[in-house]
């Protein structure tokens, strides 16, 4: 791989460089829930069944689409378009022309810095194999859960 290849435009990276750009956070492997009314996409803490929760890496990356056909194959064009990619995602940052953060393993030389920076999903998510309904695992951030509002409306009737 070329020296400081991560500073190059995404469409100039070769296959090995492209794969090495991933910080291994695992955030893109979490399920999302779309609000049918607004189209807004909400994150959950539920991981794809193939995600190894101890490493935040796909347990069968080469064959993942055999088991998860809708797993998105990220491309240079998509990296700048997918709104649900986390703001910390290396592909999203580079698609926006931003530099990699200092905790990225390519800069720190240590994969553990992703977890130390609070970016890795390790220890913060559960597998879809035991999670139950996704709607019960939505990360609402600072906003009031929509489900709560709807239940209150029903209670008021
Ligand atoms: S969110 Fe981006 S950097 Fe993190 S695991 Fe997914 S592709 Fe890699």
Automatic annotation (TrEMBL):
Domain of life of the native organism: Bacteria
Record-linked Pfam families: CxxCxxCC (PF03692)
InterPro entries tied to this protein: Puta_zinc/iron-chelating_dom, UCP006173
Coiled coil: none
NCBIfam families in the cross-refs: PRK05170.1-5, PRK05170.2-5
Matches recorded under PANTHER family: UPF0260 PROTEIN YCGN
Name used for this protein in its record: YcgN family cysteine cluster protein
Top-level taxonomy: Bacteria, Pseudomonadati, Pseudomonadota, Alphaproteobacteria, Sphingomonadales
């Amino acid at each position: 791989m070329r020296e400081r290849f991560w500073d190059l435009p995404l469409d100039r990276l070769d296959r090995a460089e492209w794969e090495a750009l991933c910080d291994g956070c695992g955030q893109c492997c979490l399920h999302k829930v779309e609000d049918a009314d607004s189209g807004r996409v909400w994150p959950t803490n539920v991981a794809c069944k193939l995600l190894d929760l101890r490493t935040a890496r796909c347990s069968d990356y080469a064959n993942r689409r055999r088991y998860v056909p809708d797993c998105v194959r990220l491309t240079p064009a998509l990296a700048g378009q997918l709104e649900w990619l986390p703001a910390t995602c290396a592909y999203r940052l580079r698609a926006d022309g931003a530099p990699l953060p200092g905790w990225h393993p390519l800069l720190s030389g240590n994969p553990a810095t992703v977890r130390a920076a609070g970016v890795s999903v390790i220890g913060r998510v559960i597998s879809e194999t035991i999670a139950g309904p996704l709607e019960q695992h939505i990360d609402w951030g600072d906003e009031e859960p929509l489900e709560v509002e709807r239940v209150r409306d029903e209670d008021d009737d």
